[in-house]
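SEQUENCE AND FOLD
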Amino acid sequence: MNWLDAVPAWCWWLIALVLVAGGQQYRVVVAQGDTATARGELADYRLEVAERDRRAAAQVRDEEQRQQKIKDQEDENARVEKLALQGDVDRYRAAGVGLQQQIDRLRRGRGATCDLVSAQQRETRPSASMVCGQLLGELDQMAGSLGEALGRSRIAGLACEGIADKVKGGR
C-alpha cells in the first residue's frame, strides 16, 4: 500500500481547496499592494499637477501685473505730456490773442488816419489790411485747434506704441 492511499479522498479535496484559496488570497494581497501603489502615484500626480497649475497661475498673474504697470506708467507719461501740451496751447492762444489785439489796434490806427475818400472807399469794400487781419486771426485759431488735436493724437499714439513695445519686449 502506498502512503497516498492512506489519506482519505476528502482530505485531498481539502488540500486542493486550501491551495486554491491560498493562491487567490495571494493574488488579492498583490492586487491590494498594486492598488495602494497606484493610489500613491495618483496622489503624487495630483500634487504635481496642482503645483504646476499654481505656478502657471502665478506666472499669468505676474505677467498681468507687469503689463498693467507698463500701461499705468505709459498713461502717466501721456498725462504729463498732455499737460505740457495744454500749457503750450494756452501760451500759443495767449500769443494769438495778443497778435489779434495788435492787428485790431493797427486797423483802428489806420482807420483814424485815413482821409474822407478812403473812409468812403472802406464803406463800399473792406481794405486789404482788414481782410488780411481777419484771415490771419482765423488762420491762427484754426492752426491752434489743429495743433492741439495733432499733439493729443501724437501723445496717445506714442503711449500706445510704448505699451505694445514694452509688453512685447518683456516676454
In short: The helical segments are 3-6, 9-113, 116-124, 128-169. The CA atoms of residues 87 and 94 lie 11 Å apart.
